[in-house]
Amino acid sequence: MSRASLVAVAATAGLLAISASAHAAGMTLGEFEYLNSCSACHGAKGEGDGAIVQYLATQSLPSLTMLQKNNGGVFPVQKVYGVIEGSEDVTVHGARDMPVWGQRYRARVNESDEDYDFGPEETEAYVRTRILALIEYLSTIQAE
Ligand code: HEC
Known about the structure:
By secondary structure, the protein is mostly helical. It has one domain. 51% of the residues lie in helices and 0% in strands. The chain is globular and about 45 Å long. Heme C (HEC) binds at residues 37-38, 40-42, 56, 58, 61-62, 64, 67, 80, 83-84, 90-91, 96-99, 101, 134. Residues 37-38, 40-42, 56, 58, 61-62, 64, 67, 80, 83-84, 90-91, 96-99, 101, 134 line the site of heme C.
């Protein structure tokens, strides 16, 4: 097996526990992740009406169903990836309310499988897979 596929297999193994819970709930990994990590702020349907919005500095959240429409009908994969990962700035002024998921997923990677130590490459593959699953889900909730 090539190094690249070994990395992919390891990252997939790390995701298996989450995938199993998603599967048990009859959801895709992205939807499951969204409901767990994003809906408290962005709302169950992505409309910006999550339960904890009132506690944020920003009291109005952009609707995540408008990402494609606001970008001329094309889903802005690169931008959304950057916003979730944390490499793309979301606020021009003031504090960032939106958590930096890239760091969180990176920190969590070795908790998912105590018997296995993820290397830097595997960690990145794991982070990428989780973010791409979210992007895949977000692309399914876009307004026409
Ligand atoms: C603690 C609340 C909170 C959580 C949890 C959260 N976000 Fe956000 N998100 C925000 C806020 C607030 C903004 C608006 C920018 C800002 O003020 O930081 C934002 C902006 C965004 C944007 C940019 C929208 C646009 O129109 O430009 C995307 C995409 C996004 N969030 C996706 C996600 C995803 C996916 C998750 C789950 C992994 C998530 N967010 C979790 C608060 C949150």
